[in-house]
Amino acid sequence: MPRIDLADVIAAVSRSKRYRHVAPQVVARLAGEEIARASNAADAEKRTKRRLHQIFGAYHMAMPWDRLLGRLESVRGDPAGFRAVCAEVMKGHASTAERIAELPDFYNRIFEITGRPESILDLACGLNPLCIPWMNLPAGVRYTACDIDMEMARFLEGFFALAGIEGRALLNDLVAGPPEIEAEVALVLKTVPCLGHQMEDVGAMLEGIRAKWVVVSYPTKSLGKVAKGMERTYRESFGKMAEGRKWRVREV
Questions:
Q1: Strands (E), the chain
Q2: Using CA atoms, how far apart are residues 137 and 141, in angstroms rounded to an integer?
Q3: pTM to 2 decimals?
Q4: Are 77 and 163 in contact (CB under 8 A)?
Q5: CA distance 151 to 171
Q6: For the chain, what percent of residues have pLDDT higher than 70?
């Protein structure tokens, strides 16, 4: 079997239009895993892209990030207008699109338990930081958003500036481990099932998050809007994950 060069596979995947903005560390990790199973470089590239589709491509939607920042800029200083544009942008992402109907009750019920945090760590965040106008956070809150999409991270940096939030957006591969950043509340929304396909013990990763409270949510429907008993399945899955761990669990 010919030797497959990791750098060549990473470069080939990173040149693709669909995956060129995925964090390099994620592409490198998946390519390294798939090379061991591949018959040649082309096969390794194909396998890596298939894995990226499972964790990124299936959820990703191409967005005109600069134009969206321009729209937010045009309503800066207008709270109602800013919220309206945030809601419109969130509709472009499968995860946050279905959360819009729950705002602001979604965060009110969470913060009734945790208190209004002065620091938030939003992991595998997607566009969730755009929910900030509904969170009623205290002045001076520190918000750190982490994702594997480089273009989305750039957009979120601009969003924080326009929203007047002390925030930053970082690239992070949760499979390699959460960032060493402390926060009062960490959000891990609708990402545990995806992580479960990539790592043996998601619970260990959750334990490594440096936050007093970790908020974990699960999808109740597939991307095709089918329930398929997911609520019961994920509730049982989380219960098993929590067994033997010193967690105090509250379900909302």
A1: 119-123, 142-147, 166-171, 183-189, 211-217
A2: 7
A3: 0.92
A4: no
A5: 10
A6: 95
